[in-house]
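Chain A, query sequence.
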Amino acid sequence: MRRSLALAAAAVAVSATLAACSSDDSSSEGEMVGGMTECTDEIINAEAEKAVDANSGGENVWEPGSVECADGWAAAFGSIDIKDAPEDGPQGAPATLIFQQEGQFWIPKDAVDVCGTYEDGTYPSDAEIPESLYEACLTN
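Chain A, predicted structure.
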């Protein structure tokens, strides 16, 4: 019986010590390790530029248009142009790039994977992208 009481007392002492060690310091309140990214035209278009460059081996460039954001998702509307095209040559193709926020990063997503099963133009029940950004799925 004494042994059980001693073990119980030791467990209480250890948990109290751990609680004291893990208490939050008010000076670090609100800070996140790694942070969170923001959804701005500048940030999303920079991510779109990186994605186009990586996917084309540097042959194409991103020409930004507009950006829309909702619930940790972003859609960049613009065009993909040939990097070395002459000014009077072919113009870019309209494109929409989709990104999902993961902590401090914007991750490019393929519309095929996140837009759900397209049937009649309405928002699919299996879509991952928010309904407010579903237009991005229809413009690809």
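The CA atoms of residues 17 and 78 lie 56 Å apart. Confidence is low (pLDDT under 50) at residues 1-33.
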